[in-house]
């Protein structure tokens, strides 16, 4: 897909991300290709730029979001960065509800765009942020526009319109499997709907953390969470349950062997894609497995002990 | 010596839905051993053979115990241990 060299707005830089062939991993999967879509190339640094742009533009077009209102939503971070970027680009105010233990990088980036942050209880996780956002909106319905990324059809709609279409344009002739993790479930739902329209069947696999207490930031363990209303459990052909350690080890391997520095949800996605590719290869079946690299790893660095001694 | 332990929603199935439980121990490791008696399964969620699971964050008051003395961190009566989960979804 062509990338334009001049852009009229930063929002035109969202999407059209490249697919990277993971050659080092493919050494273990003879006959099966593995591709990862580099979503960290979006201007906000994550896959969330797509749904954030779509939700903003659709709400403006419907007249739901007006200049006198503040867009507010709950987020684990990446959607917050994306909303902040789109809000700054279009001249709308943004407020975010995030658990107070989101990474410092996310807090700093969103604040730099002029966004107001409300913190929720870290022990309540992202579901606690959802509940607090609903409460704030109920208290001041005239002040806020609440897109609610977990129930907004524009979220999967963005992936149907862009992510799925891009994958078919790039590898539509060869893709056999698509695999991605569930957070809001927007990426899985929208992309899968588009891929299911393809003339050849494509097996679409959802990824969830194997346990309720996990370290795959951004992914949701649905059996222990508020299930997003946009989630349709009939859509994925299968679900893979990934252990935190496997996702983290794959994240390290991606850094070291493929030179892609990604976050842990991307590691979990690639671990699942790699597992599928290995099974296919072991059975002697050809295949082409596509997954998503949701964001870059530098969003997750924690300050080390000695760094925390500095003040500025 | 009763230490307050704050439990995230994901682990409250092990604490009969309770947000806070109390336990005893001279160190974080002893406290977790003691909690396992009252809340079986908790220890395995927090620790593996090498110690605190890499993705589990235990805060003693405001400080990550990794930056203190890990499982050997000494406890005092007024301490609160908080189990902080990763952030899910969106």
Task: Please describe what this structure looks like.
The complex is a heterodimer of chains A (about 300) and B (about 90). Chain A is α/β, with parallel strands linked by helices and about 300 residues long. Helix content of chain A is about 40%, strand content about 15%. Chain A is built from 9 helices and 10 strands. In chain A, the strands form 2 sheets. Chain A has a 6-stranded mixed beta sheet with strand order 1-2-10-7-8-9. Chain A has a 4-stranded parallel beta sheet with strand order 5-4-3-6. Chain A is globular and about 60 Å long. Residues about 305-310 of chain A have low confidence and may be disordered. With about 90 residues, chain B is α+β, with helices and mostly antiparallel strands. Chain B has a single domain, classed as Ubiquitin-like (UB roll) (Roll). Chain B has 2 helices and 7 strands. Chain B has helices at about 30-40, 40-45; strands spanning about 5, 20-25, 45-50, 50, 55-60, 65, 80-85. In chain B, strands 2-1-7-5-6 form a 5-stranded mixed beta sheet, with helices on one face. A two-stranded antiparallel sheet of chain B has the order 3-4. The chains are: A alpha/beta (about 300), B alpha+beta (about 90). Chains A and B meet through α5 and α8 of A and β7 of B.
Topology:
The complex is a heterodimer of chains A (312) and B (90).
Chain A: E1 19-21, H1 23-26, E2 32-38, H2 49-62, E3 70-74, H3 78-90, E4 93-99, H4 104-112, E5 116-120, H5 125-139, E6 144-145, H6 154-171, E7 177-181, H7 186-195, E8 203-209, E9 238-242, H8 244-258, H9 264-282, E10 287-293
Parallel strand pairs in A: 2-10, 3-4, 3-6, 4-5, 7-8, 7-10, 8-9
Antiparallel strand pairs in A: 1-2
Helix pairs in contact in A: 2-3, 2-6, 3-4, 6-7, 8-9
Chain B: E1 3-6, E2 20-23, H1 28-38, H2 42-46, E3 47-48, E4 51-52, E5 57-60, E6 63-64, E7 80-84
Parallel strand pairs in B: 1-7
Antiparallel strand pairs in B: 1-2, 3-4, 5-6, 5-7
């Amino acid at each position: 897909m062509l990338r334009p060299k001049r852009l009229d707005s930063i929002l035109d830089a969202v999407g059209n991300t490249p697919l990277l062939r993971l050659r080092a991993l493919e050494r273990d999967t003879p006959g099966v290709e593995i591709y990862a879509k580099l979503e960290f190339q979006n201007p906000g640094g994550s896959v969330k730029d797509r749904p954030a742009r779509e939700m903003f533009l659709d709400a403006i077009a419907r007249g739901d979001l007006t200049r006198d209102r503040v867009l507010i939503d709950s987020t684990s971070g990446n959607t917050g960065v994306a909303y902040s970027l789109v809000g700054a680009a279009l001249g709308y105010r943004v407020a975010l509800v995030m658990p107070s233990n989101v990474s410092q990088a996310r807090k700093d980036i969103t604040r730099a765009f002029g966004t107001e942050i409300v913190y929720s209880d870290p022990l309540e996780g992202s579901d606690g942020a959802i509940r607090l956002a609903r409460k704030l909106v109920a208290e001041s319905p005239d002040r806020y526009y609440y897109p609610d990324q977990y129930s907004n059809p524009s979220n999967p709609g963005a992936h149907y319109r862009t992510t799925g279409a891009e994958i078919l344009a790039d590898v539509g002739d060869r893709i056999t499997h698509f695999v991605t993790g569930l957070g809001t479930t927007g990426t899985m739902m929208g992309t899968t709907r588009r891929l299911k329209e393809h003339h050849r069947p494509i097996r679409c696999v959802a990824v969830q953390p194997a346990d309720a207490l996990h370290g795959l930031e951004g992914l949701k363990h649905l059996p222990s969470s508020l299930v997003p209303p946009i989630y349709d459990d009939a859509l994925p052909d299968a679900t893979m349950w990934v252990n935190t350690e496997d996702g983290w080890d794959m994240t390290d391997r991606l850094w070291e062997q493929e030179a892609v520095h990604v976050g842990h949800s991307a590691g979990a996605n690639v671990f699942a894609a790699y597992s599928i590719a290995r099974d296919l290869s072991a059975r002697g079946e050809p295949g082409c497995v596509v997954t998503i690299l949701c964001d870059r790893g530098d969003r997750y660095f924690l300050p080390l002990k000695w760094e925390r001694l500095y003040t500025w | 010596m009763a230490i307050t332990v704050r439990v995230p929603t994901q682990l409250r199935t092990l604490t009969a839905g309770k947000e806070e439980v109390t336990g005893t121990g001279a160190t974080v490791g002893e406290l977790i051993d003691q909690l396992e008696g009252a809340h079986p399964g908790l220890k395995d969620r927090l620790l593996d053979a090498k110690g605190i699971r890499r993705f589990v964050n235990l805060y003693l008051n405001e400080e990550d115990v990794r930056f203190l003395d890990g499982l050997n961190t000494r406890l005092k009566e007024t301490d609160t241990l908080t189990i902080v989960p990763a952030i899910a979804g969106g």
